[in-house]
Design goal:
The complex is a heterodimer. Chain A is mainly α. Chain A is 68% helix and 3% strand. Chain A has nine helices and two strands; from the N terminus they run H-H-E-E-H-H-H-H-H-H-H. The N and C termini of chain A lie far apart (58 Å). Chain B is an alpha/beta fold. Chain B has helices at 59-66, 89-95, 112-119, 126-139, 141-145, 156-168, 186-203, 214-220, 238-243, 245-251, and strands at 19-30, 33-44, 48-52, 74-79, 82-83, 97-100, 174-178, 206-211, 223-228, 231-237. In chain B, strands 6-7-8-3-9-10 form a six-stranded mixed sheet, with helices on both faces. In chain B, strands 2-1-4-5 form a four-stranded antiparallel sheet, covered by helices on one side. In chain B, helix 3 packs parallel to helix 6 (156-168). The longest helix of chain B is centred in the last third of the chain and has 18 residues, at 186-203. Classes of the chains: A mainly alpha, B alpha/beta. The interface between A and B is medium-sized, with 24 and 37 residues. The structure holds adenosine-5'-triphosphate and magnesium ion (MG).
């Protein structure tokens, strides 16, 4: 499409938000109230189906694309350290996204209501929170964030129908950081990324791929609910 | 305090006098299990009314049906001159009914203050919300001290205080309270009930109080209904109820045993 980069970003995010809301309405609302595991399995299944459908599209379904960005291809030298401007932009935008999401969940009425709904759906009903509408917004928001992440990732990995598998890396990151903790998942991501890079450099071939899981094991042995994990003490 | 009224006197018959909430032949079930088999009763404006009943009698179901969590299969629920059965829970909260659920049901990872903000979710008047927040902090000063702590870290009694405060933040006309004394020490129970009467008197909030253990409930409420397997079987002033032999035996535990010991075994119920 001949759209400029920023318009393209907005378009991708907005259309993914709609896809997320439609997915909620059609696939996830019927299992409202079921255990989280059911929902997770359904979304994974839905992911496979959508990927399969996209790959079947003749012409571009199986191709790999490069995404041109307005950030220069140049590099930045700080003493001995060499950094690609491209990557710096990605890091900067990720940080900005995290910050905006943090503000949203911490301070806005609807952001807090989203947390409330995910923590205790029944109580959310009692408070007069329109649970279904909020759930739909949650799925819309997560799809939009995924779209943004995909755009950030595109200059690094190229665009193809299986790029979503990088999301599997996010899982150990979230476990290490502690589920439900935003700072936790950022720290978790940094730890996993660093360990992988170091393992790839210093250890024999193959260790890089298991490094993330070794980190998960070790962390869970020491902090069973992750580094920043919230230990919910259920009081009777 | 003049809760004990003379039996037979005119003001002991609240059914006629301007009910704010009225149930007529309400039936509700969970799948094949019929929990309410035609429940009718009325709650007069500005009063505290209690519904007593043993485990599984259907007390919680009555409250859930009023607040729209469960849709009744038959019957009418009339609130402030308007039929509300089958409406969505958020519509009902907006109209002025709030619910303090059994087992407290706080949002464990939100702070105390965020929990309170969620109680005010249906409101759009920041000034009024701040005022009400101030008032509940005055009722329960410990909540102010812990306002930045996660609700999951509070003790059971503090969580109950939070659940009550949170329900107050929608500025309800009617507050439904499901076993607020559940799992609390006698001392805490007394404090909670003291506040309940204060809320009723100072803010004119009508209170429908469900209790399994009847001592405090009969003390605090004016009128009482006894629910047994989905039906109202007794209806009288609390003063009169407290004198009845079956009530004394089954709900006040005046004979050996009593219902008290069972309460600890209650499980958290699944919903849906
Ligand atoms: N989610 C549910 N699914 C199926 N049956 C239910 C459900 N909740 C309650 N019931 C049944 O409905 C009936 C009334 O339950 P309810 O919770 O209203 O009783 P209750 O008087 O509040 O009891 P308790 O004192 O234990 O709180 C009981 O027979 C109970 O087993
Ligand atoms: Mg109950």
């Amino acid at each position: 499409m001949g759209l400029p980069y920023w318009a393209m970003i907005l378009f991708a995010i907005a259309s993914m938000a709609i896809v997320g809301m439609v997915a909620e309405r059609i696939v996830l609302r019927p299992v409202l109230g079921y255990p989280a595991f059911t929902v997770v399995m359904i979304t994974i299944g839905l992911g496979y189906v959508l990927r399969g459908v996209v790959t079947m599209v003749p012409g571009w379904g199986t191709e790999t694309y490069a995404l041109r960005t307005p950030f220069s291809e140049g590099i930045l030298k700080l003493g001995d350290v060499v950094l690609a401007v491209q990557q710096l932009a990605v890091i900067g935008m990720t940080a900005l996204l995290c910050f905006v999401l943090y503000l949203f969940f911490r301070f806005s009425r609807i952001g807090i209501a989203m947390q409330a709904t995910s923590q205790n759906q029944l109580a959310a009903y009692y408070m007069g929170i329109p649970v279904r509408r909020v759930n739909m917004m949650i799925w819309g928001l997560s799809a939009a964030v995924a779209a943004f992440a995909g755009i950030l990732l595109a200059p690094v990995t190229f665009v193809h129908s299986n790029m979503g598998f990088i999301g599997l890396k996010a899982f150990p990151a979230a476990v290490v950081g502690g589920f439900g903790s935003v700072p936790g998942s950022i720290v978790g991501g940094l730890i996993i990324g660093l360990v992988e890079a170091l393992a790839g450099f210093y250890l024999p071939e193959g260790f890089k791929d298991v490094a993330a899981y070794v980190v998960v094991l070790v962390v869970l042995l020491v902090w069973p609910s992750g580094i920043f994990g919230e230990t919910v003490r259920k009081k009777v | 305090m003049n809760w004990g009224q003379t039996p037979g006197s005119d003001d002991s018959a609240p059914l006629g006098s301007d009910p704010i909430l009225e149930l007529a032949n309400v039936e509700a079930s969970y799948g094949p299990v019929q929990a309410l088999r035609g429940v009718s009763f009325a709650v007069p404006r500005g009063k505290i009314v209690t519904v007593l009943g043993a485990n599984g009698a259907g007390k919680s179901t009555v409250l859930k049906t009023i607040s729209g969590i469960i849709d009744p299969q038959k019957g009418q629920i009339r609130f402030d001159g308007e039929e509300i059965q089958g409406r969505s829970p958020d519509w009902i909260v907006r109209r002025g009914i709030s619910h303090v659920p059994e087992g407290r049901e706080v949002f464990p990872l939100l702070t105390v203050e965020e929990n309170l903000r969620m109680g005010a979710y249906t409101r759009r008047d920041p000034g009024g919300i701040a005022e009400d927040m101030e008032r509940v902090y005055e009722y329960f000063p410990i909540l102010r001290e812990r306002s930045r702590q996660e609700a999951g870290q509070l003790s059971g009694g503090q969580q109950q205080m939070l659940a009550i405060s949170r329900a107050l933040l929608s500025r309800p006309k009617v507050m439904l309270m499901d076993e607020p004394s559940l799992g609390l020490s006698p001392l805490l129970t007394q404090e909670i009930f003291r506040i309940i009467t204060r809320i009723n008197r100072e803010q004119g909030t009508t209170i429908l109080l469900v209790e399994q253990n009847a001592h405090m409930a009969l003390d605090v409420a004016e009128h009482g209904y006894v629910l047994e397997v989905g039906r109202i079987v007794m209806d009288d002033t609390c003063a009169n109820l407290a004198k009845k032999e079956d009530v004394q035996e089954f709900y006040l535990g005046m004979k050996a045993g009593g219902v008290r010991g069972e309460r600890r075994w209650k499980k958290k119920k699944h919903w849906r």
